[in-house]
């Protein structure tokens, strides 16, 4: 028996929320919150989900009438808990590549008010190849611009039909960047000035920062879970208990989106920059910098990494000695956050695979780790050893990318292919590999060979890893 409305009755509300992205994160985060807001704060809104890519999960979602089971595992009020619930927020999913008319009709729903998205770091982009006539446009902002134009025409530019955007992509100023891309499309497609004014004046683009560890589908334990549930659910999603959503926007957003009235950890603020920097540098920075080291060490999950004697020490010292000193918030606050993050990493109920965090490691290293390396050098006048060691490990990790099925930008994968194939084991050859990787301005937004001493230090560590393997090499920096 599969999960569906036949076995789980639920209320559908007007579709007031449009969601781009049907991935694990939103289903374990904002959809869960909207479900609670419907049940506890009279929000009265269903979510219509649009699949941003041609391939995706909306068929599966529709097959289960928008329902899925969420497990929230972790520590709540000091107690270990494993809660499960069926999330009822989603009314249906649409694949705009197949059902464009259905997608277009969303624009003329007078009750629509919010747009939530998570299209990964790659999603909020302007692609000048997108054309107005495309059905649909390739990029997420292209699709939204076309939809907004439909809405603008349908309601004659009525001010109250503007939408509130709360993007969840983990990029700086996600709301502002989405708006910028939409305005670029409006200009590219030569849409009228009045439409551009309507975007500017009647639509609201909030920046937001999300935080919840969501490992996703529990592939390891799905058989037991199915037995426990008594029904089949192809969209089970697992996340931790901890959650934080920081939303930067005008006051009326908090009134209209009553997440903070339901005991949820949702903050409406005027400036989210400090929250973002703290989270991205400490939590995501620790994740990204531990991945190559822990994988080469032979570990599989985040928990194993922080609980291992040597790798755990490496992770803690990276955070407290090399990341925290580069941040500007009060030290006690940073230490408190960092300790809480380490506790979250040790969550015994969550299996967070290092290989899943490894996806696109290079762009993550650039945004989440490199700023700490550069700031540390600036402030202390020397290199942060552990972060540099992590960079050397990253280069080594990509030698055997096929073993771990590492996914990254194709150009990056091809570069490593060439570099490692030409490697003859000599110091010169290591130097060549390191110099070439550090020179990739497309990845690092600068030539890292310009950082004094960096190339030499990466070479030293890479050579050590080559010679003695990670289990011994990590002792160099511990
Ligand atoms: N999983 C977590 O713990 C977590 C926590 C906070 C933030 N995030 C953010 O969420 C993202 C991953 O989401 P997920 O965990 O739901 O993964 P997922 O693979 O389940 O979902 C990814 C979603 O992004 C869409 N997408 C992917 N590439 C796209 C592109 N180029 N254009 C438009 N849409 C695109 C997919 O269609 C899908 O809906 C990451 O970028 C991460 O920063 C994840
Ligand atoms: O989701 P990614 O792949 O961008 O990054 C991996 C993790 O660092 C990330 O998912 C964190 O668990 C999350 O950002 C916690 O809020």
TrEMBL record:
Its EC number is 1.1.1.58. Keywords: NAD, Oxidoreductase. The keyword Oxidoreductase applies. Residues 16-257 form the Mannitol dehydrogenase N-terminal domain. GO terms for molecular function: mannitol-1-phosphate 5-dehydrogenase activity; tagaturonate reductase activity. Belongs to the mannitol dehydrogenase family. UxaB subfamily. This is Altronate oxidoreductase. It comes from Anaerosolibacter carboniphilus.
């Amino acid at each position: 028996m599969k999960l569906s409305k036949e076995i789980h009755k639920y209320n559908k509300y007007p579709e007031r929320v449009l969601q781009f992205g049907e991935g694990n994160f939103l289903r374990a985060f904002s959809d869960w919150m909207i479900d609670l807001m419907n049940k506890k704060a009279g929000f009265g809104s269903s979510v219509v989900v649009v699949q941003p890519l041609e391939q995706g999960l909306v068929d599966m979602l529709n097959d289960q009438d928008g329902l899925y089971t969420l497990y929230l595992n972790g520590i709540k009020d000091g107690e270990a808990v494993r809660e499960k619930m069926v999330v009822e927020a989603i009314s249906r999913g649409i694949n705009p590549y197949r059902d464009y008319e259905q997608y277009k009709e969303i624009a003329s729903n007078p009750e629509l008010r919010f747009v939530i998205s998570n299209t990964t770091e790659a999603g909020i982009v302007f692609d000048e190849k997108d054309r107005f006539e495309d059905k649909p446009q390739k990029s997420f902002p292209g699709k939204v611009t076309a939809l907004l134009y439909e809405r603008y025409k349908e309601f004659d530019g009525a001010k109250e039909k503007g939408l509130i955007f709360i993007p969840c992509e983990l990029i700086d100023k996600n709301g502002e960047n989405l708006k910028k891309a939409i305005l670029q499309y409006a200009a590219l497609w030569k849409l009228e000035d009045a439409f551009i004014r309507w975007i500017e004046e009647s639509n609201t683009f909030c920046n937001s920062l999300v935080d919840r560890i969501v490992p996703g589908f529990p592939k390891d334990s799905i058989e037991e879970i199915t037995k426990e549930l008594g029904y089949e659910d192809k969209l089970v999603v697992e996340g931790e208990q901890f959650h934080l959503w920081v939303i930067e926007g005008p006051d009326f957003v908090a009134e209209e989106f009553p997440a903070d009235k339901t005991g949820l950890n949702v903050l409406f603020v005027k400036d989210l920059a400090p929250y973002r920097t703290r989270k991205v540098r400490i939590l995501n920075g620790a994740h990204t910098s531990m991945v190559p080291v822990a994988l080469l060490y032979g570990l599989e999950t985040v928990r194993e990494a922080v609980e291992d004697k040597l790798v755990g020490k490496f992770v803690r010292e990276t955070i407290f000695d090399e990341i925290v000193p580069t941040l500007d918030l009060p030290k006690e606050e940073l230490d408190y956050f960092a300790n809480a993050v380490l506790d979250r990493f040790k969550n015994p109920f969550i299996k967070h695979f290092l290989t899943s965090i490894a996806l696109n490691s290079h762009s993550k290293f650039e945004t989440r780790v490199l700023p700490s390396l550069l700031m540390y050098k600036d402030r202390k006048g020397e290199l942060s050893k552990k972060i540099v060691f992590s960079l050397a490990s990253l280069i080594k990790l990509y030698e055997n990318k096929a073993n771990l099925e590492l996914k990254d930008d194709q150009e990056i994968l091809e570069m490593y292919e060439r570099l490692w194939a030409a490697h003859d084991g000599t110091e010169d050859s290591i130097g060549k590999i390191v110099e070439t990787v550090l020179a990739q301005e497309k990845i690092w937004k600068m030539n890292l060979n310009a950082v004094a001493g960096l190339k030499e230090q990466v070479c030293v560590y890479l050579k050590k890893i080559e010679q003695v393997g990670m289990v011994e090499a990590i002792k160099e920096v511990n």
